[in-house]
Structure formats: structure tokens, C-alpha cells
Amino acid sequence: MTQIGNLGFPRIGARRELKRAVEAHWRGGDAATLQATARELRLRHWTLQREAGVDLPPSNDFSLYDQVLDAAFCVDAIPGRYRALADADPLAGYFALARGHQRDGIDLHALEMTKWFDTNYHYIVPELHADQAFALRDDKPVREYLEAQDAGIETRPVLIGPVTLLWLSKTTDGSDRFALLERLLPVYAALLRKLHDAGAGWVQIDEPALVLDLDDTMRAAYRRAYAALADIVRPKLLLATYFGALDDNLELAASLPVDGLHVDLVRGREQLDAVLHALPAGRTLSLGLVDGRNIWRTRLDDALVLARYAVEARGADAVQLAPSCSLLHVPVDLKQEKALDPELRGWLAFATQKLDELRLIADALTDADAAEPSLAEARAAIDARRQSARVHRADVAARLQAIRPVDAQRLSAFGTRRVAQDALRPLPAFPTTTIGSFPQTLEVREARAAHKSGTLSDADYDAFIAAETASCVREQEALGLDVLVHGEFERNDMVEYFGEQLDGFAFTKLGWVQSYGSRCVKPPLIWGDVARPAPMTVRWSTYAQSLTDRPMKGMLTGPVTILQWSFVRDDQPRAATCRQIALALRDEVIDLEAAGIGVIQIDEPALREGLPLRRADWAAYLDWAVESFRISASGVADTTQIHTHMCYSEFNDIIEAVAAMDADVISIETSRSRMELLDAFVRFRYPNGIGPGVYDIHSPRVPDVDEMTRLLERAADRIPPAQLWVNPDCGLKTRGWPETRAALQALVEAARRMRAHTPVTRAA
């Protein structure tokens, strides 16, 4: 009988229990309480998966913060500056790596954070050097395997593979990270032996880097790594690839001396026949048949065709059924969404339902007649969605068809625009601003919840938001910021807020997904054509502008980011959906300008995230992504200043596309990299304004004036000072007011020091 495996399960809990436990610990709660919650969640998830019919649920897919950080901690890849704390208090050291530490005379920056392949999940970047030594510091994979075993559940431990781990890391001295492989492999061998001795029959070893464009160094690293692990006493190894097809790496993957191979047949459906021919006899083949990254029901008839084809080719005992990748990227359980539109609900499958889908495919392989009623029900749901009159709108299609090249062009080149903007809106050298949001306090969250539940009237809620906005404007004036924001107190989330006001979107109540650490988001569901029925942000932006003589930024989330951070419909090209969103935002930008808002920020933190994993596919994506941004931004006069913001991104490979967006000012996250990310802008000679973040808002650590000044001096050494703006790394929503005030006071003072030491004329 064909087995069902799972590559990973959401760790946060159906009601974000992990988030609450972790944040309680950060506020001073004891470690034992946190670990007890973690154990309870692991047991709950293993039990749920076994009850759903999963034969081999994963273990060690759970993390208190991030699985890459776990792997680095496990192999003792801990930079020296953290080591004393990690030795004295391992949990404190672990969290210091993730979010910094500023207490008891210890002041540590957090490690860099960036996106996990092309997802919105952020991982902590391990920091290595040429003399790096590795050791088996932590046996977490063994402990969690034994924990499940004690509960009577046999699991398949998950490890990030050694080559992918090195690829995800950075070296601080410019050395070759893959030269460290021979030092790393004995640690993997020791860990695999321990898992074997504990009784593990299989280990899932994740190597998603195998779906990338590999150079000779990485190919050689794969051969060395798995040759070294071939002859030791160890469990069977399932080599897991996902997020794309193996393509030209298939021969390499099939040649590695492992016991099984997992392939993604959602993003790489076309590879199955080649995989069946390439994989040696006797190897287990795991088929990724249901989408681990989206929430639409699986077309089970199609998945069943692939499963039957593989079983006929290799035999039922040599085939496993699985999601395409870890279910980390989808919410836990659709059953919680009782208020969701019933028709739409019938089109969806969350993590728990995806396991049910796999069970149904397995049952159909064994007894097609018995499974037919359930298959017919699934078929009817797919057909209902395809035939629904609610999905497509003629007016949206007509507007999309009418887009012209001029709609994606500003009236004048940047140099002309800058002269017009400086004449209308004179600013000092090193102008200061923030990225948009200010602290969302408990009072703000409680007021929003009360309003949503109906216990706070519209009038009282509006009065509360007005008061918070006015207070925020006064705070910024007192701090001395040059370009202000309204604080976004009316907004629940930078994507959800807009989706709630756009046609074609739907929302869950408990559809939470982990973004990083304890940060969870509820991605909207884009189920139909997108249009804007009415202005979305004009009211609060214009109210805030009425309170001050200083420029007030209108704040929007860009079309690519709204697309990337939503669960997107899969019945039309993503480019078409993105252009629909861009047209809706274009209307908003024009309305903001007409209302007197002369500075408008259109955030695109997800532009780099959406880049396809294979370079051959980049140009097509960047063409429509950049065009979509420009459509949203190009309906305004030269005097209107368009800003954008980008989160943790490697800009070297896409700097031409970033420049092609033609924003008047771009702000980027650079503080964790100590301004290293600016190097791409230096080599390219980026011409427009740029605000490199001078402090990390993802950490509670507050840098002082000297530290921010040093970062600005480093930036001014790379970028002409006339182009530089001064801002935090990102929005301040998750921070508290005391640390926000302290950090922004230091930021403003650092800008003043730079003006004194580096006089700049901002004329073009």
C-alpha cells in the first residue's frame, strides 16, 4: 500500500499559541512554560497528522523561531560575540542570534535575516568564516524524535541538508563557504548516527538548493557530501527537493547515494517522467502532489493520474504521497473558518485538509470505487469555482486590455522631477523620515477588536484613531523628523488592510501563517478579478496632513507585494492579477495627489522575493513586476514624490530592475548587514534618492547616536550624500513607544551630525 508522508507542519498552532508563548517568554516568562507549550504543540500536531492518515509525520520541523537558526545552533555555527551568552544560557543565546540582546551589560546585534527561497518566510542567515569549526552542540533532532516515540508515534526527522545550509549562510571574511563542507560533514554523520541509535528508520534531508542554477562548486559539494554520508551507520535518507523542478540537476540528484527522492510535482509537474527514468531501482520516490504553498483544493483527478503513473512504473511500496513542500506556508485548519463565504470555503484546503486530500488519493489507488464518492465531491467543488460568475468581471478585463506603454511612464525623467520637488518642498540634507507604521499598542489593538466585534461604535472608533493619529504627528514634530507619516493606526496589516477594501479578495479569521519568529500574518485570498470600489487611504492621510505644515507621506502597499503576500488565484497568470491590483492602486495614488498629498510611498518589499529561482525565468517576471509598480505610480505630476521600500533583499542581481521602477526615493533594510547591501547601488551608480536603514526594527535593541552616525558615514562613503535619506529599516508597528522614541531621537541627531560634517546642496 502506498504510504503518505509529510514534509513539515505549521508550527505556530491553530490559534498562534506558539507566538503567545514565545512573546510571553521575551517579556520575562520562564523557559519551562515556553518549552511546555512547545511540547504540547508538537504532540498535538503529530497526533493530528497520524489521525489524518499520515504514515510518516515529520519531527524536528518545529522551531521556536526559525529552522535555519536551529540548524546553525545545532552544528555550533555561533559567532564568537554570542558564544559567552549561548554557553551560559543557551535559550537566551539562541534568541540573541535572532533578535539581538541588550541587557545586563551585553549589547549584541541580531544576525541578518532574509527570505527563504521565493517565499515570504524569513530565515536567520548563519554567519561563518574561513576558520569556522563545527561541533554537534545540540541534539534537538534526536530529542524531538524520542519525544514522538514516547507518545507512540513514529516520525521521520527533518534536517536541512549540509549543502543547502552552506548555501543559505554567509561568510564574514569573503571566504568560500563550501570550503567548509569537509568540517561540517562529520557533524552531520554524528547526528545521523545518533538518530539511528535512537531508532529512526528514515531521515528527511532537505536540499531545496537542488532546484537552483548550480555552478560546478555546488555540484561538487553535493557529490562530496553524500558520498561521505553513504557508508556510515545511519537511517535511510529521503532527499527532499521542492519549490521547482530539478531539470538539469536531475541527473545529479538521482546519482546521489541516498535511499529516496522527493520531487515537487506542483511547481514541476512536467518532471515526473524524467524522474521515473533517472531514479535508480530500489529508491523510494516521494511525489509532491498537493500544493504546500497555496490554499486551493487540489485537482485530485490530475494528482491521481500522476500517482497511478508512478505506482505502475515503480510499484506501490516504492512510492510515497506528500505535499509539494512543508505545509509551513499555509494555515492549519479550514474547519475554524465558520464565517467564511460557504461557496468560497468549498474551494479551499488548509494544511489539515491537504492531508485529507493525500489520504483520498492513497485510498483511490487501493480502491477506486470506494473513493469515487469523495472524488466526485472534490470534482464538483473544482467545477463550481471554474464556472462561478463571481470570479470574472468584464469591466476589469476591459481596463486591463486598454493599458498602454505611456501608463507606466512618469511625465519627466528623475532629474527634472527632483528639481520640481525640491522647489515645491525644500528639505535639509540627509532628510529624515520613517517607513510608515508607528507602534500598534495594546490599546490600538483592543480598540480595533472592539470595533470589529461591534462593542465600539464607528464614531467612537474614528475618534480614537483620530486621537492616535494626532498624537503620532505631534510626536514626530517633537522628534524633528522632516517627512512625517500618519502612523497607520487604522490598519491591521499592510496587505490585509487594502485587500479588505478591494473587490476580489476574501479574508479568514484564523488563517495565520508564520512570517518570521513570532510574527504571523493572515494572507488574503485573491479569488476573483480585482477592482477598487472607493478610496482606501485618503481620509486618514489628509487628516494627518491637516495637522502639520511638514510633508505627510501617503502610505500604500505595492501591487507585487499585495500579490506575493496573498494566496493568489491559480486560474489565470499571476501577471494579470498583479496588473489588476496595479490599476486599483493607480486610482488611489491619483486620489491622494488630488487631496494634497505630495509624497506617496508605494512599498514593494516582496519584489525580490517573487523572483523565480531559475535565472532563465527572471526577465519575464521582472518585466511585469516593474511594469505593475510603474502603472501604480505614474499617474501623478512631476512635483509628487514617489517613494518605495524594500525589505531584506540581495540587490546585486536585480539592481537594473530596481532602477527601472524609477521611484524618486527608495528605502532599504541595511542595518543588519552594516550597509553591505548598498554595494549593489554603488556598482550600478544608482541615480535616485536612497534611504539605507540605520537601525533594525525587528530587534528590541536601541542603537545610540554614535552607531547610527557611523552607519550613515559608511553610507555616505558609498553613495553621494545628496542622494541619502535617513530612516529606520522598516515600519515600527511591532515596537513599543519608549524604544521608538529613543531610537528616533538618535536617528534625528545622527542626521544633524551628518549635516554639520557633510554639507550637501540638494539641488539636482
TrEMBL record:
GO-annotated biological processes: methylation
Residues that coordinate or bind L-methionine: I435, G436, S437, E488, D603
Function summary: Catalyzes the transfer of a methyl group from 5-methyltetrahydrofolate to homocysteine resulting in methionine formation.
InterPro entries found in the cross-reference section: Cbl-indep_Met_Synth_N (IPR013215), Cobalamin-indep_Met_synthase (IPR006276), Met_Synth_C/arc (IPR002629), UROD/MetE-like_sf (IPR038071)
Domain Cobalamin-independent methionine synthase MetE C-terminal/archaeal: 430-752
Domain Cobalamin-independent methionine synthase MetE N-terminal, residue spans: 6-305
Species name: Luteimonas fraxinea
Chain sites annotated for binding L-homocysteine: I435, G436, S437, E488, D603
Domain of life: Bacteria
Annotated positions binding Zn(2+): H645, C647, E669, C730
Record-listed E.C. numbers: 2.1.1.14
One Pfam family hit: Meth_synt_1
Molecular function terms, GO-annotated: 5-methyltetrahydropteroyltriglutamate-homocysteine S-methyltransferase activity
Gene that this polypeptide is encoded by: metE
Protein name, entry field: 5-methyltetrahydropteroyltriglutamate--homocysteine methyltransferase
Active site per the UniProt annotation: H698
Pathway(s) the chain acts in: Amino-acid biosynthesis; L-methionine biosynthesis via de novo pathway; L-methionine from L-homocysteine (MetE route): step 1/1
Family affiliation: Belongs to the vitamin-B12 independent methionine synthase family.
Cofactor info, note text: Binds 1 zinc ion per subunit.
